[in-house]
Amino acid sequence: MKKTALALAATFVALAAPAHANTYAIDPTHTFVTFEIDHFGTSTNRARFDKKEGSVSFDRAAKTGKVEITIDTTSVNSGTAPFDKHLQSKDILNAAEFPTAKFVADKFSFNGDKVTEVGGSLTLLGKTLPVTLKANKFNCYNSPMLKREVCGGDFETTIARSQFGVNYGLNYGFSDNVRLIVQVEAVKQ
What we know:
By secondary structure, this protein is mainly beta. Helix content is 12%, strand content 54%. This is YceI family protein.
């Protein structure tokens, strides 16, 4: 009886102990931040940022976490050099004055063990606004190559670029809505 009481007490202590978040480093070779914007209703302009870094702190048991991703806006890549220069110009990203954008989040929503949304804020052109990324995919696995746990997924949101001060082309009929897609994998440290 005494052993059962001790075992039960140990279980309560273990359950009451604070959960422990693991830290993960963003893997830049498996992480891409891309955007899409309608081009006069005929096609979709797409580009990505080639340089990004960040970290994730994640606790599945407590269903909490924190994400910080910094994006180098000078690394925008549409596949067309003249378009990249225009994207970097004062008309759009103003990369000379604002060489980074940043997403910081600490509101994780779950369905079981799967992350369904990550809420936080996006700082772009010096303005910080709330943004929620919805997960299309989320998974953690033990990487056979890295011999460590990797977590990640495909996330997306749509922002109104004019809220950040990007008004170029609105009077021509360019869309205000920009779809952001974040494909991320992070390696447990």
